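ingest -> validate -> predict -> emit
validate: passed (alphabet ok, no gaps, 297 aa)
predict: started
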Amino acid sequence: MRRTFLKGTTVAALGSLIGGTAIAEENDDTAETDASNYNLSNSNSPILAAHRGFQDVSPENTVAAVKKAVSGGKGDNAANRRCDMIECDIVPAGGQPWKGEEFDLAVFHDDKLASRDGGERGTTDAPNQYVWETDSNVVFNAEVLESGETIPRLEEVVEATPDDIPLNIEWKAAGRLQMPDDFEEQKETWRSFTKQALDILSEYPHDFIVQPFSKAALATVREEDSSIPIAYLLWDSIEDGLQVSRDLDCEYVQPPYNRSREHRFSGMNTISMVVIGPTSIWSKSLTGKVVRSSHTR
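emit:
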């Protein structure tokens, strides 16, 4: 049986997502109030997922962002509510997995270290090179968004996340700019990346879900460990994305936030995620197979 961390939840109306979006502005580990018995699976409240670890409040995809997102108490009664889920991105650092090179897994969103939006905005203070073509020591010492925080390893982000908070992890890049046309070759491009990521995650007690934009990446997760819940990130075509999700028997589907309301996912149970500032708010409904949320690239 595949692991699911939202088992047995009930529907939270979309209208309820607009309230309660703020996570602790200050670190408050004592704000649990009457929520000592709070259980995410039994809650009717929306799931608060910290996108890139609470970006904009703290530097994205850093340990500081995760710590900010998980501070506070559990449930709606908490004075400052912590997040219910951490979302982050991973890319290979220091080597190209598909070439058989040794590599580490960095929690980072972009392909290059120091450019974003065509070079208009810098991401780190490191040379503007592809993460996988840069020595790991340089990558993990690169300062993120002039914050004093550095790019973390996957292990560091998981260790900063409490055991009872699941992770939503995006397989962001395989370290290869031009993918082959053959689907089997595409899968082999992702294979070593997937194996190493799953090996690392298997050392921790957390529940997690794997989500990529790549069908081949998703297929390798399903083939390596069918117990891991997976989600396909839809972008250009909702219908094509839904077909991929059916082909791979995905537990979840994540359409982009701006397409969620224009497409009716009839006959499917839904997890709707609304991104409000740095937080992602999920409502819950799990009584069937394919589930949806929304995503910003």
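The beta strands are 47-50, 85-93, 104-107, 167-171, 208-211, 231-233, 252-254, 272-276, 279-283.
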